[in-house]
Design a protein that fits this description.
It is built from 12 helices and 17 strands. It is of the alpha/beta class and 349 residues long. It has one domain: Rossmann fold (3-Layer(aba) Sandwich), CATH 3.40.50. Helix 3 packs across helix 4. The chain is globular and about 65 Å long.
Length: 349
């Protein structure tokens, strides 16, 4: 996509171009994960995180009757670290491992190649179309996936809803303009109670379209969506977009195609969406509480017994990053939407 003076893009299409354009998109040409990248996600902080997710997968499989076959589909697998640990952990539970069809949904060919270097591709299938999934129960796993899906932004002025756009001015500089929102967008926004009374609205239209595909499949075959991301429950009523490059904050319009662009996830809105689309939900938990429920501290204490003091200290510093309310412990949330006869799931009860 070329941006010129005649081009006026709504915010979500602008972000889509910056992140996913085939030629210049951020995720399409580089590996941003880890110390040498632009940011670090939980699986890259410590494998304890992925081990807890692995145990949750096993307990979920058991809770739905230990089917002979089920799909584990990771949405956007980053550098492949979490799926690597999950596969290694499930191998210790042969019946679950043999029943599991490992799949990764990834848009970036560059990242697919990075993931294949780290993972045993014989057991894992990469897909780009979520419709092409068999009829087995499917467990969708999304860790820091939804925050990277472009959002729309709106604001009310004198009772009229306006949508945010970007365009080039006469000096070829990107400027912000607001245009009257379309009837379709107004109708969509007004259908959500969690967005009422807000003067500034972030609406994940692209994200909800992706979720509709997932919900449709879960309703057809049973299963769930386990989502871990940073976000909020109470309406922010303000801009949550942020950009990062080299582990530092970046002005959104600088380094386009070279910096990450994300937004905070509105978990209350997502739960409302799931309920409207006939999925059951569990109470959203802070990451700290979920991981503690899963036994991450006990696991850390067990493996620390075989470590030297220096390695112990390093491990507990990483654990603090995941659990501290001032770091990832409260900012990151864990949600579960599902279709199952069982309503009891480890970590949420």
């Amino acid at each position: 996509m070329k941006i010129n003076k005649s081009t006026s893009l709504p915010l979500d299409k602008f972000i889509e171009w910056a992140l996913y354009d085939k030629n210049s998109g951020y995720y399409m040409k580089k590996n941003p994960f880890g110390k040498d990248g632009d940011f670090i996600t939980a699986p890259n902080i410590t494998r304890l995180f992925s081990e807890m997710i692995s145990i949750w997968i096993i307990t979920f499989w058991k809770s739905i009757g230990s089917p002979k076959k089920f799909n584990l589909l990771e949405l956007g697998a980053g550098n492949g670290e979490m799926m690597k640990v999950i596969a290694e952990t499930l191998k210790k539970f042969p019946k679950c491992f043999d029943a599991c069809n490992f799949k990764i949904y990834e848009k970036s060919n560059f990242l697919i190649n990075q993931q294949k270097k780290k993972l045993n591709s014989e057991k894992i299938l990469w897909i780009k179309n979520m419709h092409k999934i068999n009829s087995y129960p499917t467990l969708y796993l999304a860790n820091e996936f939804f925050d990277a899906i472009p959002i729309k932004q709106f604001k009310y002025e004198k009772g009229i809803l306006f949508e945010k756009y970007y365009m080039l001015d006469q000096n070829n500089k990107i400027k912000t303009v607001f245009k009257k929102a379309s009837k379709e967008n107004i109708t969509n926004i007004n259908s959500y109670k969690s967005l009422k009374s807000l003067k500034f609205i972030e609406f994940p239209k692209y994200g909800l379209e992706e979720l509709k595909k997932i919900v449709k499949k879960i309703l057809e075959t049973s299963g769930c969506l386990l989502m871990i991301d940073y976000g909020y429950l109470k309406p922010l009523n303000q801009n949550s977009l942020q950009s990062v490059i080299n582990h530092k904050k970046n002005y959104l319009l600088n380094n386009l195609g070279k910096a990450d662009v994300t937004s905070l996830v509105n978990f209350k809105l997502l739960n409302e969406f799931f309920l409207k689309n006939n999925l059951k939900i569990k109470k959203i938990l802070p990451q700290q509480r979920f991981l503690k429920n899963m036994g991450i501290i006990e696991r850390a204490e067990l493996i620390s017994k075989k470590m030297k003091f220096r390695d112990q200290s390093n491990m507990y510093l990483k654990l603090k990053r995941l659990l501290s309310p001032k770091l990832m412990g409260e900012l990151f949330k864990v949600s579960l939407a599902y279709k199952s006869k069982s309503n009891k799931f480890f970590g949420f009860n």
